[in-house]
Amino acid sequence: MPKNTRTKIIATIGPATATREKLEQLIDAGADAFRFNFSHGTHDEHKKRYKLVRKISKEKNVRISILADLQGPKLRVGEFKDGQAFLVKGAQFTLDMKKELGTQERVTLPHPEIFKALKVGDILLLNDGNIRLRVDECDKKHAVTTVLVGGILSGHKGVNLPNIHLPISALTEKDKEDLEIALKLGVDWVCLSFVQKAADVKLAKRLIDGRAWIISKLEKPSAVDELDEIVRESDAIMVARGDLGVECPLPTVPVLQKKIVAVCRKYAKPVIVATQMLESMINAPTPTRAEVSDVATAVYDGADTVMLSAETAAGQYPIEAVSVMHQTIQEVEKDPLFDRFMESSRLRLGGVCTDQADAICSAAGNMTSALQNVAAVITFTTRGITALWTARERPDLPILAVTPDERVANRLGIVWGVRGCVNKGVFKNFNNVESISRKIALETGIAKVGQYIIVTAGFPLYKGSKTNLLHIIKL
């Protein structure tokens, strides 16, 4: 404490970064959290990486959040006789359930739920949207299509169905198995892929049963239709721009990104902007100017976290990618316009706070700018909720979340401006709160003698009380 940036960085761990040396370098370069992608790797590999991250973070005395990203229902075509086929524009191409190798005329699509949902006129996107098919005829076992945009299609390429709601769960049997492994390890967050509706999140919450917090990945246009409901049910949201950019018209993705960030701010839920942020750094030591601008835009928008995927999982320059992202965040957050943007973006539901926690955290946010020489906000929190509401205000100060729960402290690692601190002391009266606040502020270095700190809490402390305390202390 204190770290000099408020926007957090998630780095995906993969073959390029699974060693002690690389993990230490990623943390030193600015990574706040690590994503374990359960679409790849074995359970034993994830277990070894998990133990290594926890060991390094303890040795370095830093808190690193760990995310388990579940694969979700991946919709893919089958294999081809020659490994691939060239689909000609204007030609007919059939998708069916036959267990035969594909040709230039047909290929297996082993997903009966897709055929049940299809109707004539629907558009199918294959291979990340590079191939476009129109459904001319369909039943429960096959679909005859016209190739609108052709190209090479190889085996196991993905299928996207824009604006089609599929009657499938966001959790496959593989996901449920991966989920239990991840929860036994002790991951802080579970990323739920292919969320289409709030009911998908409710199902995952029942299975997780409080053992981790849930990040809903928004990849389908249908999820945007239930955006408010999904955000309310989730603990955090990921703007998964990869599949979102395939299923939605590309020019709408930046608009959706801003909309999602704004709704997450409204409900005090952390929001992650992800996918292709520094894509060229998979193979190049420096990013494009447009990529740096993309990262900067997410920071200016007030995203809690920005994420690197293949750049750190399999790229040639993983440390450099985190370093560039960190430096970009530093430059944006130094800009005087940044704090003005954060202040102007404080959202209210009809101009009225929704409850007392909202009101107190809002007042604390106002105090950080109204009172001179304030060094930090210290929030005492049992479940982390007070810290989320405080971060929602985007104060121009560090936020130190004091909690008795190690898991809560780790989870807050992806929340804007928040650092977790574990303190299991017993607080019998208000004087204890004031004395421990002074001690923590000075020992962590977030404040100096003569400065003010703002304290928020639910009193009595650590009893699950709603936020009801706002106090200013001069050190």
List keywords for this structure.
475 residues, alpha/beta, TIM Barrel, M1 Pyruvate Kinase, Domain 3, Pyruvate Kinase, Chain: A, domain 1, 3 domains, eight-stranded parallel barrel, six-stranded mixed sheet, 21 strands, 22% strand
Strand order of the largest sheet: 1-2-3-12-13-14-15-16
First CA to last CA: what distance?
18 Å
**Nearest-angstrom radius of gyration?**
24 Å
Structural class determined from secondary elements: alpha/beta
Uncertain residue segments: none
Tell me the layout of helices and strands.
Layout: E1 8-13, H1 20-29, E2 33-37, H2 43-60, E3 65-69, E4 84-87, E5 92-96, E6 106-108, H3 112-117, E7 123-126, E8 131-138, E9 142-149, E10 151-154, E11 159-160, H4 173-185, E12 189-192, H5 198-208, E13 213-218, H6 221-225, H7 227-233, E14 236-240, H8 241-247, H9 253-266, E15 271-274, H10 289-301, E16 305-308, H11 310-313, H12 318-334, H13 336-344, H14 356-370, E17 374-380, H15 385-392, E18 399-403, H16 406-411, E19 418-422, H17 430-444, E20 452-457, E21 469-474
Parallel strand pairs: 1-2, 1-16, 2-3, 3-12, 5-6, 12-13, 13-14, 14-15, 15-16, 17-18, 17-20, 18-19
Antiparallel strand pairs: 4-10, 5-9, 7-8, 7-11, 8-9, 20-21
Helix pairs in contact: 1-12, 2-4, 5-7, 10-12, 14-15
